[in-house]
Amino acid sequence: FLVGDTRHIIREATKKSCFICCKMGATITCCETGCDRTFHLPCAPDGQCVTQYFGAYRSFCWEHRPKQPLRPRLSQDNTCSICLDTVEDNISYKTMGCPACQGARFHRHCIQRLALHAGVGFRCPCCLSQEPFMTEMLIMGIRLSKRPPSWQSDQEVGPSDQRHGRCDAAMCLCPGGREHTKTNGPWQLQLCSSCAAEGTHRLCSSLGNSTCSWECSTC
After folding, report:
1. Residue 178 sits in a domain of what CATH number?
2. How far apart (Å, rounded) are the C-alpha atoms in residues 111 and 83?
3. Could you give the CA distance from residue 160 to residue 61 in angstroms, rounded to a whole number?
């Protein structure tokens, strides 16, 4: 974005209310043509909205988000393949499945945590398929990591090299780009206080200067 474009987006966002929390300052608009629903990135999970963390970083409201066309399972085992707790009978925002084996079911928050920990080794926890599993997870709003799996120790990489260093907001407003950061002010990068695997500029997620912690939509 150019500086002028960024200022215009900020001015427009102050006029828009989040359809989830009803507060002003919503910077994200559903990408579906004709839909004017706007929302804050931290509110997205509560509103069952989806942001695709690749390409154009498109976002969708609950009505227009992509949905998985999975066939019903033959087995009656309604448990998450990751945490083994109960999942819903049908595919929904909170319950997802593998497009390859069609049998695996898992909670959205479980598969998101697995994706961040597995990194480049991310695959279906049941059939071990990587394609088209990985592609579908991206489309459904799961954020992938390009790092090695967290369970593989790499002695050549120091702690400072492992720190996440980019803004993952659906719409980054920073004129310097997603990897531009400042030590304070609107372009200070705030990492998720739970997983530290996602970050946001303060302004991009409407975080005030007094906000000391922030959690990503996954956590």
Report:
1. 3.30.40.10
2. 10
3. 36
pLDDT digits (tens, 9 = 90+) for 62-118: 999 999 988 776 666 788 989 989 998 889 999 999 999 888 899 999 999 999 888
Name the residue with tokens 């803004």: 167
Residue corresponding to tokens 């609107």? 186
What domain range includes position 204? 166-208
For the chain, what is the domain count? 3
Return the closest-CA partner of residue 200 out of 176, 165, 175. 165
